[in-house]
Amino acid sequence: MVFGAGFLLGNDFGESQCPVCAPQDIDLSLFWETYNLLFEKFVDHEKLNNQKLIEGAIFGMVESLEDPYTTFLTPENTKKFIEEITGRFEGLGMEIGKRKGELQVIAPLEGNPAQKAGLRAGDKILKIDDKITEGLSLDEAVTLIRGPKGTQVSLTIFREGWDKEKEFIIQRAIIDIPSLKWELLENEVAYIQLYNFNEKANFSFSEAAFEILGSQAKKIILDMRNNPGGYLEVAQSIAGWFLEKGQTVTIEDFGGKEEQKIYKAQGNARLSKYPIVILINQGSASGSEILAGALRDNRQVKLIGEKSFGKGSVQELANLRGDYSLKITIAHWLTPKGDLISERGLEPDIEVQMTEEDYTQERDPQLDKALEVIRNL
Questions:
Q1: CB-based contact 258:251 (threshold 8 Å)
Q2: Maximum distance among all Cα pairs of the chain, rounded to whole angstroms
Q3: How far is the C-alpha of 144 from the C-alpha of 258, rounded, in Å?
């Protein structure tokens, strides 16, 4: 299961399989009436293509759900999707998503071209090169942004507080995603910046945890700002350092179709005795929201910063006939207390905004507040 890429590889629903069949009384007469009229009346008859018409109907059906993570993929896009999530990729290094129909940056990834160019969580992407993003699916936007290293892409960006949009011309690169780094602040505070929950993060966090246990650190600040997520198993494993074995990390809710599944901490709880505060912002999504919610619900850990993004859903990639596929949202993640993350996000216990001047002057009032709070814990 993947938060950032957001999918489960799996089922094949080609040919005659029908796990949950459509209602028998469904009326498709309007569809066929429209289809027949097109073939009878449309002036450019050479443009009529049965396969494209059917594809278009399916695209429209899926888009009517207004879920940016549920997508119908053509054979070409299915192949690209599999290639992208199974190996290195070339592009700008940022997680993107949709909120209220608008394409925006969830989080620029640490040390990659998007971050170096100055993109921030919450930036709205109005155009990719000359392509207006209104109406684009997430997968279409990703395809336009990614490309061979050394090539350039132009993004037209609007940011809250700006008078008008700005153009960013960014050179693509091979994306290298670091897991974390940590340092000792004020001689006793372990400051951990956790960038994602990729396959390397589990080992990296274990390594850092043992270093912290052997240091002077007495308290922890866990910074998950601009952390767009990663693998469920990694988030669950890291939670096990902070929670007692058996405490709930997250709940997978299938909308009543089947019984909820509860994921519990399985680790050694070696960091459970350390006072801790967590930093989040609107670039904190999926796995970082799961971990932050788990620590707040189980240990009453304070969240400091800005409201998180609200990406708490599970996608499954279902194989269809003819090498088509459907990436479909099958469940939502809940916090241990049963709060829905999708669309809502996590509200900080202590809200601290970053201003344009803070970024320009390289000030970090959110981290300053976290240090102020943890001194008294």
A1: no
A2: 80
A3: 37
pTM of structure? 0.80
286 is catalytic: yes
Report CA 353 to chain centroid distance, whole Å: 21
Task: Give the pLDDT confidence of 314-339 residue by residue, as tens digits.
Answer: 888 899 999 999 999 999 999 999 99
DSSP classification of residue 291: H
Q: Of 137, 284, 286, 288, which one is the catalytic site residue?
A: 286
Catalytic residue, candidates 98, 219, 311, 327: 311
Any catalytic annotation for residue 297? yes
Terminal-residue alpha carbon distance, the chain: 35
Asked about 237 being catalytic, the answer comes back as no
Token pair, residue 281, equals 């912002």
Residue 80 has what pLDDT?
72
Token pair 């998950």 is at which residue?
Answer: 224
Q: Specify the residue for token string 């896009």.
A: 77
Across 31-55, b (16+ Cβ under 10 Å) vs e yields: eeeebeeeeeeeeeeeeeeeeeeee
The two structure tokens encoding residue 363: 């000030």
